[in-house]
């Protein structure tokens, strides 16, 4: 960056009379004037060398120059014009340098001010930090002095306390020595008196024990006689009560048996069943399928090969389902053709494999994505209609994997022979697997129930058996409400929510006001408990059950509001 100062006008008067010797090689029109001024100047200057002006010699004669031509005149004018243009020219670069200089100076001043302020702030901070350090150091010194004074005070107090304790100990030792002698004498007197008192008490105790023994012996004999009489009377009363109770139980069993027989006959006439019967029917069908049909197929190599070949064709088709009616119809038809091409017992073995493939797909896919239950249920409904005996086999496999939940029946406590079931066997009947977490078990069963509810609301071209009719939606909810043994499981509210979400609107259209009453009972069961009893909350009191009940409550409010 360059700095310069403007030139000042010269105070010398002679500078104005200076005439350059060069005319850039051109003749000037003002040569005569310039020569005259030069001569005058020379004369004025040289006059100092002469005595008088008369002695000054005249100027030399002016040389004769030829006149300039037109080209020379034009060249001179052009040259003078270029000089004027150059003199009056405004140079942007010089202007840029000037502005750059000013801006740089301004930025330098601003930076200097900022640096100065920052330096002052740092000095203030340093001064404050040093002040704080000195204050802290001074405080520590004060605390150290106070601690030393307190330590000295404690030492002095400890010394005084030790002196007082030694003095008191000396006094106590003196008094204890005196009192010890007195106590020894008193102890001797008390021991003699106590021994005499003990002897008297011992003699009195022996007399009392003898008297009590005699009274106890008489009381024992009296109580034994009374107990014998009471036991005899109690035995007679018990025998009479047992006889009456046996007669009453026999009459109640007879009445119950007649009532159950009448109800069963009425249900058979109407085509209805109860939950335990549906569950037992599924278990019996499963047992028959395993013992007869599957055992025959697995024991025959040819039948087993045909079964495996067809099963390898069926299982991938279940996994290829999409929500496309044309694809669903095509896959259903292909599965029907594949299974119908075989005869007994491979036909029933393939029906079992088909049911297992559908249920496994529901456990894996529907659990992750509930919407995938729709195409799976549509294929299941089509196969239930088209394949003979598939309803029974599918129900058997369904109760095997979902337990008693499809029938909404309590878990049996005894086997077919009447023996009590252990907890492991009861879990197996409920469809639970070994070492399966409760959350995984609930999610798996609810996925299966979603497919089942979608099947129930599907319009069938022909009526199916009881477990697959649309009326089972109502029946399932009523059975659940009437079975307290199922209320403590979180599967209950999750399954109810799935049913209402899938078929709630259909139930309102089918049963009308009765459906609304059933929903009100369900609402009571998920809010205050059935009958207002908190111990009868559907789902229990776990965190998962609370969330499931909230979903059921929202769904019921939606259905009742609409």
From TrEMBL:
One of its GO terms (cellular component) is cytoplasm. GO terms for molecular function: inositol hexakisphosphate binding; phospholipid binding; translation initiation factor binding. Residues 192-259 have a biased composition (Basic and acidic residues). The keyword Protein transport applies. It comes from the Eukaryota. Residues 1-70, 192-262 are annotated as: Disordered. Signal peptide: none annotated. This is mRNA export factor GLE1. It comes from Postia placenta MAD-698-R-SB12.
């Amino acid at each position: 960056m360059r700095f310069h100062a403007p030139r000042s006008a010269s105070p010398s008067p002679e500078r104005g009379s200076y005439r350059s010797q060069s005319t850039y090689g051109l003749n000037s029109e003002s040569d005569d004037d310039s020569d005259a001024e030069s001569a005058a100047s020379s004369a004025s200057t040289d006059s100092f060398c002469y005595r008088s002006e008369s002695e000054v010699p005249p100027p030399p004669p002016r040389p004769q120059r030829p006149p300039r031509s037109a080209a020379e005149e034009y060249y001179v004018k052009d040259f003078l014009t270029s000089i004027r243009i150059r003199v009056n020219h405004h140079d942007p670069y010089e202007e840029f340098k000037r502005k750059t200089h000013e801006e740089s100076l301004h930025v330098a001043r601003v930076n200097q001010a900022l640096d100065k302020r920052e330096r002052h702030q740092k000095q203030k901070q340093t001064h404050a930090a040093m002040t704080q350090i000195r204050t802290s150091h001074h405080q520590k010194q004060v605390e150290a002095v106070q601690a030393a004074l307190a330590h000295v005070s404690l030492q002095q107090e400890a010394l005084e306390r030790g002196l007082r304790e030694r003095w008191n100990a000396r006094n106590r030792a003196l008094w204890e020595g005196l009192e010890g002698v007195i106590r020894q004498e008193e102890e001797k007197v008390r021991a003699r008196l106590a021994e005499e008192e003990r002897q008297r008490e011992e003699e009195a105790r022996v007399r009392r024990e003898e008297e009590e023994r005699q009274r106890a012996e008489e009381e024992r004999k009296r109580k034994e006689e009374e107990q014998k009489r009471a036991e005899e009377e109690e035995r007679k009363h018990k025998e009479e009560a047992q006889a009456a109770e046996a007669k009453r139980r026999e009459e109640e069993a007879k009445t119950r048996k007649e009532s159950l027989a009448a109800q069963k006959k009425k249900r058979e006439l109407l085509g209805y069943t109860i939950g335990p019967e549906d569950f037992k029917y599924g278990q019996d069908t499963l047992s028959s399928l395993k013992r007869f049909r599957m055992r025959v197929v697995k024991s025959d190599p040819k039948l087993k090969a045909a079964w495996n070949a067809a099963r390898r064709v069926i299982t991938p088709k279940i996994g290829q389902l999409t929500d496309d009616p044309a694809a669903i119809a095509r896959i259903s038809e292909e599965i029907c053709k594949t299974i119908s091409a075989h005869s007994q017992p491979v036909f029933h073995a393939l029906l079992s494999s088909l049911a297992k493939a559908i249920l496994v797909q529901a456990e894996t896919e529907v659990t992750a994505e509930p919407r995938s239950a729709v195409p799976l249920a549509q294929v299941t409904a089509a196969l239930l209609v088209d394949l003979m005996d598939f309803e029974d086999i599918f129900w058997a496999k369904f109760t095997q994997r979902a337990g008693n939940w499809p029938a909404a029946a309590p878990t049996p406590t005894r086997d077919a022979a009447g023996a009590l079931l252990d907890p492991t066997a009861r879990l197996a009947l409920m469809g639970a697997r070994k070492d399966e977490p409760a959350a995984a078990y609930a999610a798996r069963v609810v996925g299966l129930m979603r497919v089942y509810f979608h099947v129930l609301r599907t319009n069938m071209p022909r009526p199916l058996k009881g477990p697959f009719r649309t009326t089972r939606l109502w029946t399932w909810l009523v059975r659940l409400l009437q079975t307290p043994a199922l209320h403590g499981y979180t599967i209950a509210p999750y399954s109810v929510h799935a049913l209402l979400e899938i078929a709630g609107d259909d139930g309102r259209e089918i049963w009308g006001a009765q459906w609304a009453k059933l929903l009100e009972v369900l609402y009571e069961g998920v809010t205050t408990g059935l009958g207002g009893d908190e111990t009868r909350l559907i789902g229990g009191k776990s965190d998962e059950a609370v969330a499931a009940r909230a979903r059921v409550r929202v769904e019921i409010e939606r259905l009742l509001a609409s």
